Amino acid sequence: IRPSDQGMRNALIGETMPGGALMATMGVSRTTADSARIAGALAGAGLFAAFGMGPVYVAITGFYGLGFLLTLGVAGRRLRIEPASANRPSLWRDLAEGLAYVWDTPASLAAMWLAFLVNLTAFPLTSGLLPYVAKDLYGLGQTGLGTLVASTALGSLLGSIAVSLAGRVIRPARMMILFALAWYLALLLFVQMPGPAGGRLALILAGFMQSLSLVPMSVMLLTSAGERFRGRVMGVRMLAIYGVPIGLMIAGVLIERIGFVWAASLLRDRGRQEL
Predict the structure, then answer these.
(1) How far apart are CA 162 and CA 157, in angstroms?
(2) Mean pLDDT over all residues of the chain?
C-alpha cells in the first residue's frame, strides 16, 4: 500500500500544481512525511511500551482513515474523453504503456535506473539494517533505534525545506546525480562511525543528501511525463522500491561473512561505481 500511496501523491501534486511551482511544492510535500517520521520514530517506542501493539496500531489506522477522508476534498481537473476513443480501463495496459514510455525516454530511463540503484544499495543501510546497527553495533534499545531513524528523517526534513526554498533555481537532472554521489559519501561516513553520536550526525547528513537527490528526480519525472503518462510513470517509479528487499538479502549474506562495516562499504561502493 505504501508505494501506491507515494505514487498517487506525487501524481496528484503534478496534476494540481503549475510547473513553475512543482519543485517547491514537492519539497513542502516531503516535509509533512519527514516530520511524521521524526515524531513517529521518537514517540513510537514509548507508545508501544506504554499501551501495547494493538491500541497503537488502531490509532495509526485511524490516522490513515482521516487521511483518506481528507483526499475526498481534493478537486482535480476533469478530463473530457471522446466516446469514440474511450477504452475500457486496463491495469496491465497502463503498466505496459508506462514501461514503454520510460524505455523510450532517455531522461526518464536514467532516473528509473538511479531510483532502483539507490533502493538496492543505499536505502537498506538507513532502513532495514538500522535495527542491526542499533542493537549489535551500538548496544541501543528501542529508544536508541528511534533516535537513529529520527536522525535520518531530520536530515530529509532539512533537505526538503532546502528544496522548497530554492525550487526555482534547481536543475533536477544534474542535482539528482550530484547529490546521489554525496549521499553515498555520507553513508560511507556512517558505516565508519564507532558510536551512536557520530552515527546520528552521519545519518542526518545522509538524509539531507537523500532529499536533495530524490525530490528533483520526482519533479523531473513528473515534468517530462506530461499529463497523459504522469500516473503511469510514477507507478513505474514505485516499482524501483523493490530493490530494497533485494539489497537487504545481499547485505544479510555479506554481513554474515565479512561483517557489517565491510559489507556496507562494499554495497555503497558498488552503487557509487554504477553512478
Answers:
(1) 9
(2) 82
pTM: 0.82
- Which value, to the nearest 10 degrees, does the dihedral of the CA atoms of residues 46, 197, 137, 260 take? 120
Alpha helices in 52-171 (DSSP H): 53-71, 91-104, 106-121, 123-126, 130-132, 142-165
The residue assigned the cell 554481513 is 255
Overall average pLDDT of the 215-235 stretch:
81
- Comparing 203 with 63, the larger pLDDT belongs to 203
CB 163 within 8 A of CB 19: no
Among candidates 228, 163, 213, which has minimal Cα distance to 22?
Answer: 163
Q: Classify burial at 260, counting beta carbons within 10 Å of its beta carbon; exposed 0-12, middle 13-18, buried 19 or more.
A: middle
Domain ranges of the chain: 2-65+91-274
Q: Indicate the CATH number for domain 2-65+91-274.
A: 1.20.1250.20
Q: Answer for the pair 250, 104: CB distance below 8 angstroms, yes or no.
A: no
Q: CA-CA distance, 244 to 124, in Å (whole number)?
A: 6
